[in-house]
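We emphasize that the prediction below concerns an isolated chain of 488 residues; any contacts that depend on oligomerization or on bound cofactors are therefore not represented. The input was used exactly as deposited, without trimming of termini.
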Amino acid sequence: YNARSRLAQAQVIVANHDLVLASLGMNALPELDKCLLVFDEGHHLPAVALAQFSAAMDLTNVRWLDRLPKVLHEVAAKIGLSVAQDVDTLAQQLRGALGDVARLALDLLRAAGSLDTVYRFKDGQLPELLQAPVTLLHGHAKGLLDVLEALGAELKARAKEDPSQAAEAAAQYARLGQLAPRLSSVVGTSALWLTHQAQPLAKWLTSDTRSGLVALSAHACPIVPGDLLRDQLWCQVRGAVLTSASLTSCASFDYFLQEAGLDDLDCVTTLAVDSPFDYRTQGELTVVETAADPRQVDLYTREMIAALLADLRGVAHGALALFTSRVQMQAAVDALDATLRAVVLVQGQTARSRLIGAHFARVEAGLPSVIFGLQSFGEGLDLPGALCETVFIAKLPFASPSDPVEEARAEWLKREGRDPFNELVVPATGIRLLQWTGRAIRSEADQARVICYDKRLLTQGYGRRMLQGLPPYAVLRRVHGQSAAVAR
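Result of the prediction step, given as a C-alpha cell string:
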C-alpha cells in the first residue's frame, strides 16, 4: 500500500511492456485515460500481448495440490474463518482430473508417433474425448480458486482497515501467493481450452522426456495480438507514443499497425524519421549467390559455411555472425579449423556478459574476434566502431515454421482465403532482418558491411520487398567470388 501511495503521487512511471499489460484492469497503475503511455522498442508490443493473454498448465507435476488444502485451512484459521467448501475433496478431484487429461493427452502423443513433440489441435478444436475431462478439471480448479481468492480479499481488507494486522496479513497472503499462480494457470488454461469461437485460439500440448520422465503441459493462446491490444489498451488510454528503429517492415508501417491493432483507428498517425547515419557511404550490403537453394538445407548449409569461413579469414577486428538455428550455428562451429576457432566466441558457451567482455578485450588488444550468435544477438547488441565491422547473416531469419501460434494463425488465414506467407511471414522476417543489419552501423563514424549468404534477398519478390525496408546501403552481388553493384 505504501508503494502504491508513492506511485499515485508520481508524475513519471517507468515500467516495461509486460507490467503495463499485466496490470490492465488490476488498478496497479494509474487509470489509462489519465495517462500518456510511451512504449520504446514498440515493435515488441504485439508479441508481449500474446504472451500476457496466453495460458499454460502443468499436467504431470501436481504435488502442489498436496499442500493446497492444508494452506487454505491454516490461513482461514489464522483469521478466524471457516472454509465453506470441502477443499480436501476438491483437491483430490482436481488431481484425478489432471491425471485423466494427462493420460488422454499421452495417448494422442503416442498416436502422433513421439513423446517429445508439440501436438496442436487443428482449428483450435478439442477432441470429443477431452471435452468432459477438461470441463470437470475446470470446475474443480475454479472451486478451489474461489476459496483462495476469498481468503486473499479478506486479508487485504483487514490489512487496510487495521494497520496493526498488516504484517500478519501480508505473511498469510504470501502463503496463498505461492500456490495462486499454479491454480490460476489451471483455471485459465482450461477455460481457454473450452472456448470455441469463429477466430480460433491456438491450443496445443507440449511433451518433453529429457529428464527421464514425461513432462507434459497444456497451452492456449489467442492468435491475433491486434484484437487484444485494441480491446484492452487502445480503447482506454488517453494517448500513446510508440517508438522503435523497426516499426516499419518492407518500407511500410502497415504490418505493425495491423499487428498492434492500430490499423483502423482514425486517431493514429505515423512518422518515419530519417537516420543520422549516411548508410550509402558508411556501409555496404553484399548478397552472396550460392549454387544451392536455401531451401535445400544440407546443400545450402555446406556451401554457406564454406563461404563464411573464407570471409572470416579476412576479419581484422570485430565481427558478428548471425544464424537462424542452433543446429546451423553448431555446423559452422564444427567446421572451424584451429586458427579460426581461436578467433570465434560462441553464444551459449559462456554467459552473455562474459562473452561480450571477452570480445571487447580481444578487439582492444588488436586481435580479431568474431561472435557467433542467434536471434537474441541480432537485436539490442551495441558494438560500435571496430567492435563490429562486419555482420555475417547466414540465412534470411524466417521464424520456425513449427511455432504452434503461428501455425494456428496461418491455418485460420488460409481458411479465410488469405495468404499468411505474404501477409505475416514476409513482413515479420523483414523486421528481424532490419534488426540484424542494424548491428553494423552504430554511430556517425562507423564504417561497416553486411554480408548475407541468402540469394533470395535479390532473386525473390519477397526478398526484394525486405530489401526495400533496409537502410540504403550500397548493394553488391557476389557470384563465384566476383562482386558487382546492384541497383536498388
